[in-house]
């Protein structure tokens, strides 16, 4: 039997997983809301599925694994809203289902450690919506659900280097502020490990070993680029969007012990220093390839 994964909301993390699974012979069905993007998706080896009820139901009927990346909003979970009945009916036929959530469900802990047993006390609307979505997916009878609470995601195309190069980067200083992070390739390996070792009902924090102040990451990126350290700005005086400011409303250190003990994960990028170094080296290799005759 062919392993077939339906990826609902085939975004940045799902694409990284697809790059691991496709060479292993997996069939990946990935959703897109844009017919124009379908061709580009197909070029990666993923079979595009338009985000419409009939197409989603047809794809679901062919899947024996399910990944949910599409996030909720004030109207609830978009996948459940569109094809909830079909998902409930097909749930017993799935070997594995994974829901990509966020460590934002834990809320603010003033820099203290949290793990998967920590009560969910979200402090933002986004966090509360994720808590509700986790519960809604978990309430589907027979669904072999695994929840992955992702820290701040970075990786190719999502690093701090361009902002530092442009001179627009700032070190926002808020006393005691720490964030947890995760490289997208480590997200992919965690998901792949879970696919190999299904444990329905499991919840995993997906983050690296080193929760760190955000200004340390910016300063290190500048150091790697041999550029001046970006200016330091007090959080209270910093100009930023409401979305950006909301991230600073929560400070916590997220434990990743469970992905190591239960899934046997050895992180590719155990901290931001290793991750940023790898991103920079990848950039340099890409430039060398493009400039080669």
UniProtKB/TrEMBL annotation:
Pfam families: Epimerase. Residues 10-207 form the NAD-dependent epimerase/dehydratase domain. InterPro entries: Epimerase_deHydtase, NAD(P)-bd_dom_sf. Keywords: NAD. It comes from the Bacteria. Gene3D superfamilies: NAD(P)-binding Rossmann-like Domain. This is NAD-dependent epimerase/dehydratase domain-containing protein. The lineage of its organism: Bacteria, Pseudomonadati, Pseudomonadota, Alphaproteobacteria, Rhodobacterales.
């Amino acid at each position: 039997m062919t392993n077939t994964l339906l990826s609902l909301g085939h975004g940045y993390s799902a694409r990284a997983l697809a790059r691991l699974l496709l060479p292993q012979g997996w069939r990946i069905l990935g959703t897109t809301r844009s017919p124009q993007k379908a061709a580009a998706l197909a070029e990666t080896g993923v079979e595009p599925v338009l985000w419409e009820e009939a197409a989603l139901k047809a794809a679901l009927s062919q899947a024996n694994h399910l990944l949910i990346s599409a996030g909720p909003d004030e109207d609830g979970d978009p996948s459940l809203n569109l094809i909830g009945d079909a998902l409930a009916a097909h749930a017993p036929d799935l070997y594995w289902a994974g829901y990509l959530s966020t460590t934002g469900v834990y809320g603010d802990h003033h820099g203290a450690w949290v793990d998967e047993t920590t009560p969910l006390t979200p402090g933002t609307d986004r966090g509360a919506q994720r808590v509700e979505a986790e519960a809604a997916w978990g309430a589907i009878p027979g669904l072999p659900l695994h929840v992955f609470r992702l820290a701040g995601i970075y990786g190719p195309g999502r690093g701090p280097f361009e902002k530092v190069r442009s001179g627009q980067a700032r070190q926002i200083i808020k006393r005691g502020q720490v964030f947890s992070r995760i490289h997208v390739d480590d997200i992919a390996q965690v998901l792949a490990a879970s696919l190999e070792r299904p444990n329905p009902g499991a919840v995993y924090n997906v983050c690296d070993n080193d929760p760190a102040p955000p200004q340390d990451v910016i300063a290190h990126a500048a150091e790697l680029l041999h550029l001046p350290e970006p200016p330091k700005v007090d959080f209270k005086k910093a100009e930023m969007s409401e979305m950006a400011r909301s991230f600073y409303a929560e400070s916590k250190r997220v434990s990743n012990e469970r992905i190591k003990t239960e899934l046997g994960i050895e992180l590719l990028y155990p901290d931001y220093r290793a991750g940023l170094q790898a991103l920079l080296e990848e950039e340099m290799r890409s430039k060398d390839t493009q400039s080669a005759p």
